[in-house]
Amino acid sequence: xxxxxxxxxxxxxxxxxxxxxxxxxxxxxxxxxxxxxxxxxxxxxxxxxxxxxxxxxxxxxxxxxxxxxxxxxxxxxxxxxxxxxxxxxxxxxxxxxxxxxxxxxxxxxxxxxxxxxxxxxxxxxxxxxxxxxxxxxxxxxxxxxxxxxxxxxxxxxxxxxxxxxxxxxxxxxxxxxxxxxxxxxxxxxxxxxxxxxxxxxxxxxxxxxxxxxxxxxxxxxxxxxxxxxxxxxxxxxxxxxxxxxxxxxxxxxxxxxxxxxxxxxxxxxxxxxxxxxxxxxx
Length: 282
Description:
This protein folds into two domains: 77 residues, Ubiquitin-associated (UBA) domain (Helicase, Ruva Protein, domain 3); 185 residues, Rossmann fold (3-Layer(aba) Sandwich). It is of the alpha/beta class. Helix content is 38%, strand content 20%.
């Protein structure tokens, strides 16, 4: 049985374990430890700073130690807490969906910056947790949003997030890429598809996340190519396609969009100065 210990002692022990953990245990062990302890106690992180001497009950200390051990093995903090913030939205996440990442907020920013109708019809293909669609729905209540995913468990997470956030007007549909859209046309299509090659060493650090949402197989561009070539049939005149992609894929994605007949094709850099998103207009 773990003895009752002060906050500062628990955090120090956790920090030592995380620093000795696997390569995938994360670059910010101090933050991870504080997030996990705050989650176990059901308090904000500021409470830990304000009460470092507070003694933690043994059962809570044991739950915290178990989470730290899982984090030391590389499991994402978002799966351990079941939550992730994206675009100031508190999202539920599970291992059925990718952990939403800050760089994907660039896609939301660009979608909001485009000149589209006030009641635009927008499709988010491969919605996962629903992060992109939910952010757009929050910012543009008049937009008519369709969000699709081939994974039914992922759609369940997205629907639950929409309900919790009071954004239940999003139309969630199951199916692969354009199949759920039928013959409908949209003013804007956005997607953060799988774009990591199956033999990419980077996949090792992403082993806890759904492989289906990470890699299309040996050809890293397969899904991006499918989206670029299929989007014109589902875009209204002047409609836009926005694609997130890997940091070294912008040139290839631009070529695909130009070949598919898009104009105003351009890429945008994320906060790390990587070309992370490419857009084009039909």
